[in-house]
Write a structure and sequence with these properties.
- This protein is about 40% helix and about 15% strand.
- It is of the alpha/beta class and about 260 residues long.
- It has a single domain, classed as TIM Barrel.
- The strands form 2 sheets. The protein has an 8-stranded parallel barrel, surrounded by 5 helices.
- The structure holds indole-3-glycerol phosphate.
- Indole-3-glycerol phosphate binds next to strand 10 and helix 11.
- Its EC number is 4.1.1.48.
- One of its GO terms (molecular function) is indole-3-glycerol-phosphate synthase activity.
- It comes from Pedobacter jejuensis.
- Keywords: Amino-acid biosynthesis, Aromatic amino acid biosynthesis, Decarboxylase, Lyase, Tryptophan biosynthesis.
């Protein structure tokens, strides 16, 4: 079984446990559930923002522990200050060391869009995202059927959430495109075996219809590559480890941005 299969298997249990603990009614009654989510597009294209979606990630299956001490409110505020267009916050518990409270803390500290970064396999998780104050959900093409992508995308958009579809190759892109998406992200990391290749972004960008925002995800560590990605047609750049592996992720982002 590859790592992605393991994550999805564990996720099914995590979701079942969460459902037993918190009812859909409870989620719908949370204060954040009533707020209107921010527009991902507006912040990605804003002149005074960098297009960077800055990620808070404590650990990952590929790298192990990345940062064991960073405070989510502090780091996300610093990302925001450094010009992030959006924040990405991992909520997967077992493989990425995240927790629901991380979204709540990031939400309380910031007024820019937040992506709930997780492996979405059930509508219940979309309701959680809304209840916790997230603005964007991620749908990973490699673990979902085209019908699930369409249905989850529609469900999320009906709640006012923005939808980011993640693909890793043309086949995934081709089968998964549907009207209920706002942005399409090309993951430069293969989630099955963790190999990274930024060329994946350049190879796929022109296959993404222009009606969608285009995001390049993962393994971005050189500020100089941002202008190439922009020139190729990308609107957004999802960066995690390059910032989180330092003692001061916010400062690392500031320095990165100054070199773009
Ligand atoms: O830390 P990096 O290499 O900058 O990558 C960030 C982000 O793209 C990566 O964390 C990611 C992309 N897609 C995912 C899906 C699930 C979990 C994590 C991810």
């Amino acid at each position: 079984m590859n790592i992605l299969d393991k994550i999805v298997l564990r996720k099914q249990q995590e979701v079942a446990d969460a459902k037993a603990l918190v009812s859909i009614k409870d989620l719908e009654q949370s204060t954040h559930f009533k707020r209107t989510p921010y527009s991902f597009k507006e912040f990605l294209l804003a002149e005074d923002r960098t297009g960077i979606i800055a990620e808070f990630k404590r650990r990952s299956p590929s790298k192990g522990l990345i940062n064991g001490t960073a405070d989510v409110a502090e780091v996300t505020k610093a990302y925001n200050y450094a010009g992030a267009s959006a924040l990405s916050v991992l909520t997967d518990v077992d493989f990425f060391g995240g927790k629901p409270d991380d979204i709540l803390a990031a939400r309380a500290a910031n007024d820019i869009p937040i992506l709930r970064k997780d492996f979405m396999i059930d509508e219940y998780q979309i309701l959680e995202a809304k209840a916790w104050g997230a603005d964007i959900i991620l749908l990973i093409a490699s673990i979902l059927t085209p019908k699930q992508i369409n249905d989850f995308g529609k469900f999320a958009q009906n709640l006012g959430l923005n939808v980011l579809l993640e693909v890793h190759n043309f086949e995934e892109l081709d089968r998964s495109i549907c009207p209920h998406l706002d942005a399409i992200g090309v993951n430069n990391r293969n989630l099955g075996d963790f190999t990274v290749n930024i060329q994946t972004s350049f190879d796929l960008v022109n296959k993404i219809p222009n009606e969608f925002l285009k995001i390049s995800e993962s393994a971005i560590s050189n500020p100089k590559i941002i202008s190439d990605l922009k020139a190729a047609g990308f609107n957004g750049f999802l960066i995690g480890e390059n910032f989180m592996k330092t003692d001061n992720p916010g400062l690392a982002m500031q320095e990165f941005v100054s070199e773009i």
